[in-house]
Amino acid sequence: MSLNTILAYCHNAQPQWLHLLEEMVNTDSGSRDQAGLEAMCQLLKQRWQNLGFETKVLATDTGPQLVSKRQSNNPDAPTVLLIGHVDTVFDRGTVGQRPFAIRDGRAYGPGVADMKGGLVAMLGVVEALQAVGSLDAASFVVVNNCDEEISSECSRAIIEGYCEGTRAALVFEPGRPNGCIVTARKGVQAHFLEVTGKAAHAGVNPQAGASAIEALCRKVVALHALNDYEAGLTVNVGLINGGTRPNVVAQRATADIDVRVPSARLAEQVKQSIQAIVAREEVPGTQACVTLLSERGPMVQSERSTSILSRFQNVAESLGFALKATATGGGSDGNFTAAKGVPTLDGLGPVGGGFHSDQEYLEVESLPLRVTLVAGGILQLSKPSA
Questions:
Q1: Same domain for 192 and 173
Q2: How many Å separate Cα 299 from the centre of its chain?
Q3: Under 8 Å between Cβ of 362 and 105
Q4: What is the CATH number of the domain that holds 318?
Q5: DSSP code string of 368-385
Q6: CA 9, CA 197: separation in Å to the nearest integer?
Q7: How far apart are CA 22 and CA 145, in angstroms?
Q8: Which residues pair with residue 9 across a beta bridge?
Q9: Residues 84-112 pLDDT 10s
């Protein structure tokens, strides 16, 4: 099947895809916004059913998780896992302040690139393969989860459950502003640190107290000393709370810690270092404990993912451009699939930038090209040596 045939279909379909993108972007669907998440789930459910997929909605504590499947009529076809989240980082009401708009070749709006553009591209890939009679090139499992922006609290197990027997995981996070896709991501750890001390009157008998805030601040300095930018290790205390009143020695203080690591070895090392810092009594009379709230292992580029990348790069070359790959410090659901040994390509959604901000944008003309790239890549995966 000619790539030009697929590309021509995608260009013709682009207006209707942009209309769908507008509908998605203009639906507030921040993490834990149950009404918005349900609306997105139902919209996608209908679309996948229209394409002949069997769908099921899994009710979880974070909201509805949509799983859609289609088995190829070719028993030798590989199984491909497509992943895209419906939740955004934006609160309800954001759409009313800045709805979907297109200006100077760019689409704007909350979540337009991260990752509602990716959701449109996922559907577009399957539509394009169906339109050119090549949908049986692969069997598909599609996970549209509702909690990626809050560490995939409930969907992680669902995604990992579909990894066995999967030829490749394709994650439709946005393409980087320079057009790169993502083949490596840092691991992410979220820690919660709690320090307890002893309250006392700050003016009458402060010596009878033990300041949890002072102890916390000393630990923050030690935690930030763990940063090793050359090695790619970052530790950031991004939120602290503590105390009750200015004239009371603080009895309790807390901190949220974000850790990014490029390798499993460093991931274990930094956990041990954090535990050692927490165990030290920085201020007499205080105690501390730390809880690992969530963790994504590093997404490391494997030989198998490199092989699959080369096939996608061959498709890109046929389309007239060079496809490059990059590493990033942000985590995604691709971390989970890579950790399970599934060759994973990420950042396959349309090209965009300004993610998680009011300047987020999507390059409109990248949509048909990106869909063609992935559709062509899946056709390449159906060849025996992939």
A1: no
A2: 12
A3: no
A4: 3.40.630.10
A5: HHHHHHHHHHHHHHTSTT
A6: 66
A7: 20
A8: none
A9: 999 999 999 999 999 999 999 999 999 99
**Residue at 178: amino acid letter:** N
Strand segments, DSSP code E, in the chain are 54-60, 63-70, 79-83, 101-103, 106-108, 139-144, 168-171, 174-175, 181-185, 187-196, 234-242, 252-261, 287-296, 325-328, 344-345, 349-353, 361-363
C-alpha distance across the termini of the chain, in Å: 18
User: What b/e readout covers 310-341, taking b as 16+ CB neighbours within 10 angstroms?
Assistant: ebbbebbeebeeebebebbebbbbbbbbbbbe
Which residue segment(s) compose the domain that 103 sits in? Answer: 3-185+299-381
What stretches of 232-302 show up as alpha helix (H) in DSSP?
Answer: 264-279
> What is the residue-averaged pLDDT of the chain?
96
Burial of 281 (0-12, 13-18, 19+ CB in 10 A): exposed
With CA atoms as reference, report the closest residue to 372 among 324, 310, 307, 318: 318
CB-based burial of residue 248 (10 Å sphere; 0-12 exposed, 13-18 middle, 19+ buried)? middle
Residue 1's pLDDT is 57
List, as one string, the DSSP characters of 63-92. Answer: EEEEEEEE--SSTTPPEEEEE----BSPPT
Tokens, residue 68: 């859609």
pTM (2 decimals)?
0.90
Strand arrangement, sheet containing 168-171: 54-60, 63-70, 139-144, 79-83, 168-171, 344-345
| Residue 386, domain member (yes or no) | no
Q: Which portions of the chain are predicted below pLDDT 50?
A: 386
DSSP structural state of residue 208: G
Cis peptide before 24 (omega within 30 of 0): no
Q: Which residue has the tokens 């409930």?
A: 154
Cα distances (Å, whole numbers) of residue 9 to 12, 136, 174, 180, 369? 5, 18, 22, 24, 11
Q: Are residues 8 and 154 in the same domain?
A: yes
Cα–Cα distance, 69 to 67 (Å, whole number):
7
CB atoms within 10 A of CB 8: 16
Same domain, yes or no, for 93 and 224?
Answer: no
5: left (phi over 0), alpha (psi -120 to 50) or beta: alpha
Spatial contact of 233 and 264, defined as CB atoms under 8 Å apart: no
